[in-house]
Amino acid sequence: MSKYEGLDRDTLIRLLEQRDHGRQLGLEWERDEIDADQAINDDFVGLQLDTALSHGEAPWDNLIIEGDNYDALRALRMTHAGRIRCIYIDPPYNTGNKDFVYNDRFVDKTHRFRHSLWLEFMYHRLLLAKELLAEDGVIFVSIDDNELFRLGMLMDRVFGEGNFLANVIWQKVYSPKNSAQHFSDDHEYILIYAKESTKWQPNPLPRNATQNKAYKNPDNDPRGPWKAGDLSARNHYSLGTYSITCPSGRVIPAPPSGMYWRVSEKKLKEMDADGRIWWGKDGNNVPAVKRFLSETKQGVVPQTLWTYQEVGHTQDAKKQLLEVLKFDTSQEVFSTPKPVKLMERILRIACNPGDIVLDFFAGSGTTAQAVAKLNAEDNGERRFILVSNSEATADAPEKNLCRDVCAERVRRIMGGYTNSKGEDVEGLGGSFAYLRSRQVPMHRLPTKIAHDEVWHALQLLHEAPLQPWIGSGFQAIETHDGWVAYLADQKAASIGLLENWLEKAKPIRGRVYSWSPERFETQAPLLDWPRIPDALQARFSKRKR
């Protein structure tokens, strides 16, 4: 039965008028026709620490979160809103080949609302991602032809058309597919949007040997290699119409037709005296400006075509994964990894030492490997947050992609491993905390939230590396913004720890979170005494409009 059957004439007219006055241009999807995303709810999300699956010693700067990424993003909005410098995601491409799950079911090509389901799924997650980005932050989204155009319109809606930066072409294969019916599909796309385009600037990419190859030194100039640049240009220049006499005696009466010399006659003589003009080996050529490699910018502006020679291809990515994890084929673990060099390229453009990188479709953990590699190169302190689900199914209930692939790969990359040739590979260093998201109904938060979940949230909220809750009833750490402490209960032992801390640390700046702050405010009036769970609940529920 249609949902419109049984409606009276006036109601139907009103619905038609609403439709006619609705959006005339832009992206629409059948939101009223599809089932709601079951991940969308108002529950609080806590983060539980698994020290056994974490790597390295506490405190941990990097996080791997197991759970639905919508839950993880809501938890991170509470703790990291406006702090993420770079987001990279590689979402399901919605090919219809069991790559996209909506409400615990695969969406195949025959589904009537296949594209609407995907848009609904992505829309809610991108809204949260936008809140996490810093004002000078940027998001990179990998995609292919299946959803490229719809994704572009969705990104325009969420981030604003004016914040579109680029659509990068990544050449994902090194040879054409001769079996293709029409065209060989050789590339994917990376859509790039800024939180605020006027506040974001890309880092220049390092120059490579190919780019430097054009620089020579035929005259043994002590300033090093150079390349010749045109002395003439089409831009009108009133002082750029003089004649030039070459060292050989040849007279060049004027610049080429329709063009002007770039510099005045006086400036040309000064440059020639400084050895910055090239006349050719016999001194008879039209003069050229010598542009020295040593004086060029040490980086180049990123371009929008990324070849497999520069950033790797899909076979590289699979080999890199199998070098670290001991599986016969990559299909057993993760079938669509991205090459490490591709992620390095993105991070070089978007991140600086100390920035936080978020990947909430973390897959096999390539993003973390690229972060660790760049940190090892320059001793930077870039940090990552990866989010991945277990991806368990009825056919594979024990599957846990986050634990067994993503986290295990990162653990081996950081700590060292033995590759497929039996060679020991030294670790890149670093550590991470392994967390699991847990939903807590908001109305039951006062009785159901665990003390460790409170402690983890408070540390992340105040930009502190994560330390485990030791269960003593009171715990405190000093951060860049003063002390952060948590009094978990009113037991005598816990209060004794609080009073001992107040006596020894003598904190004059910071916050002590407590379930009954009014009992202690007078003991340390210089400190703030926020109430739990109210303080967390308020931040968790706060939504930007």
From TrEMBL:
Residues 202-229 are annotated as: Disordered. GO terms for biological process: methylation. GO terms for molecular function: DNA binding; N-methyltransferase activity; site-specific DNA-methyltransferase (adenine-specific) activity. It comes from the Bacteria. It is an enzyme of class 2 (transferase). It catalyses: a 2'-deoxyadenosine in DNA + S-adenosyl-L-methionine = an N(6)-methyl-2'-deoxyadenosine in DNA + S-adenosyl-L-homocysteine + H(+). The keyword NADP does not apply. Keywords: Methyltransferase, S-adenosyl-L-methionine, Transferase. Its EC number is 2.1.1.72. Transmembrane segments: none annotated. It holds the Pfam family N6_N4_Mtase. Residues 84-377 form the DNA methylase N-4/N-6 domain. InterPro entries: DNA_methylase_N4/N6, N4/N6-MTase_EcoPI_Mod-like, SAM-dependent_MTases_sf. Belongs to the N(4)/N(6)-methyltransferase family. This is site-specific DNA-methyltransferase (adenine-specific).
